[in-house]
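Task: sequence design from structure.
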């Protein structure tokens, strides 16, 4: 098959000492950042974006791929050992993982998480190899109306379906769309939100936006919490860093079920892996009630296995949606889309034709990254946990310095530094008022696409709004979107009634 021959050619391209070193660096950096609560792979990629502009595209993208999966590996380490997940995607697996750690089975919990992350990511990436080109071929049927529907689908899904508060999610969306509109409107030459300032005529560099909101906003937020007591304690690991046959037999079905939950959610723009991980956790808990040896609440290995596999499976197919459709389905995917554009590549239907050699090498690097991460995390997870002892003052001071250096190096403009500072304060305010960051990034990325697609669709149809729902693709997208919103409303009502 063409996919297999292309993938083998990709392995041939990535199997150089230089590329392998960058994949390993990405895996190590991703794990290290994932371990530290409050950080994440999106921040790591955003910080490195301006610093990697001079690198070979394949080396940089391979490193980002390692960071992408490494961040998910690292998230669960802090959750299991400290009950402080590195990111929200690790919350579900931390529920039973920390209980396992408290009962003296931390090593087995970490091994379960590492193997589950490996299997989920591996299966999802295999599916991407075989189906991403097909998705790209189907995407060539998309016209302006279809692309507008896809952007609206992403906006509403991420803002209302996933966010705890639809109002806060829509607020984040509005902030992102406003930032995307800054600059000169190309078709009309009209100034928009520039306030007469020449540096804003070209708009706000998207790298500045991502670094400011993800990195500097987190720095300000952590600085505001200095002096507050930290109740979480790091638990020591002991015992064997591998699973017995009985434990493996218990975990294997949960790994497979979790992968089944994660695979479809990677293609749906729901903002991350929170939904499939909790669906997997709920399923395993329900199934465990039928067994005599139900360990949920005491440290069930299935409660770690399922969510970990679901989270990494979501990340794997999210990469497929990014490559074939140009659709970022999470904050990290949105930042990776910026990385592609930095090297003059536009993910979407034509990427496999125009940059096929880099795409297949990137997919090959995903497999290599997962193997490296499995080798690193099985025996060394307790060592990664020691990063939690790094004083926050030194850690966040270093992040601030790296952010400022990277933004200035990318544009050689002090104006960008002032804009970064202002947006960093905005990011801090968003964290204080619990406004999600993902809708902002998605809106900044897809806002221009939605605007130009809407203009093209209306211009080609004589301003007939019916063209926006005139094809089967647009009808299906809007129907699924409406169903998702209704489901989210019903879910919140049931949750509110249960709390009452």
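Answer:
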């Amino acid at each position: 098959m063409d996919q297999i021959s292309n993938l083998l050619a990709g392995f041939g391209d990535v199997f150089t000492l230089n590329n392998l070193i960058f994949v390993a660096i990405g895996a190590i950096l991703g794990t290290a950042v994932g371990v530290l609560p409050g950080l994440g792979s999106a921040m790591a990629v955003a910080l490195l974006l301006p610093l990697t502009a001079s690198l070979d595209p394949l080396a940089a993208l391979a490193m980002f791929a390692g960071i992408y999966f490494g961040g998910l590996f690292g998230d669960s380490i802090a959750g299991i050992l400290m009950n402080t997940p590195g990111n929200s995607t690790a919350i579900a697996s931390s529920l039973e993982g920390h209980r396992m750690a408290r009962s003296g089975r931390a090593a087995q919990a970490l091994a379960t998480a590492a193997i589950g992350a490996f299997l989920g990511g591996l299966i999802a990436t295999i599916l991407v190899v075989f189906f991403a080109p097909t998705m790209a071929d189907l995407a060539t049927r998309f016209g302006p109306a279809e692309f507008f529907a896809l952007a609206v689908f992403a906006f509403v899904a991420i803002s209302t379906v996933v966010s705890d508060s639809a109002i806060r999610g829509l607020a984040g969306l509005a902030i992102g769309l406003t930032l995307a509109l800054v600059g000169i409107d190309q078709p009309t030459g009209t100034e928009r939100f520039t306030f007469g300032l020449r540096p804003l005529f070209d708009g706000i560099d998207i790298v500045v936006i991502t670094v400011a909101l993800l990195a500097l906003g987190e720095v300000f937020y952590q600085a505001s919490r200095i002096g507050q007591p930290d109740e979480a304690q790091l638990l020591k690991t002991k015992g064997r860093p591998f699973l017995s046959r009985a434990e493996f037999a218990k975990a294997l079905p949960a790994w497979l079920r979790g992968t089944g939950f994660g695979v479809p959610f990677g293609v749906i723009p729901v903002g991350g892996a929170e939904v499939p991980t909790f669906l997997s956790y709920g399923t395993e808990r329900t199934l465990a009630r039928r067994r005599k040896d139900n360990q949920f609440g005491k440290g069930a290995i299935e409660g770690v296995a399922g969510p970990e596999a679901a989270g990494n499976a979501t990340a794997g197919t999210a990469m497929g949606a990014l490559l074939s459709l140009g659709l970022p389905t999470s904050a990290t995917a949105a930042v990776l889309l910026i990385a592609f554009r930095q090297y003059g590549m536009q993910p979407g239907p034509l990427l496999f034709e125009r940059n096929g050699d880099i795409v297949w090498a990137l997919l090959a690097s995903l497999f290599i990254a997962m193997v490296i991460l499995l080798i690193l995390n099985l025996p060394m997870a307790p060592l990664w946990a020691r990063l939690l002892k790094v004083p926050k003052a030194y850690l966040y001071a270093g992040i601030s310095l790296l952010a400022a250096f990277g933004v200035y190096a990318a544009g050689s403009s002090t104006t960008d530094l002032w804009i970064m500072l202002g947006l960093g304060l905005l990011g801090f305010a968003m964290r204080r008022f619990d406004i999600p960051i993902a809708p902002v990034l998605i809106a900044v990325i897809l806002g221009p696409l939605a605007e130009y697609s809407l203009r093209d669709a209306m211009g080609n149809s004589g301003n007939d709004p019916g063209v926006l729902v005139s094809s089967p693709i647009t009808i299906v997208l809007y129907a699924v979107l409406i169903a998702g919103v209704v489901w989210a409303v019903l879910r919140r009502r049931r949750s509110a009634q249960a709390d009452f």
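Residues 266 and 383 are 30 Å apart (CA to CA).
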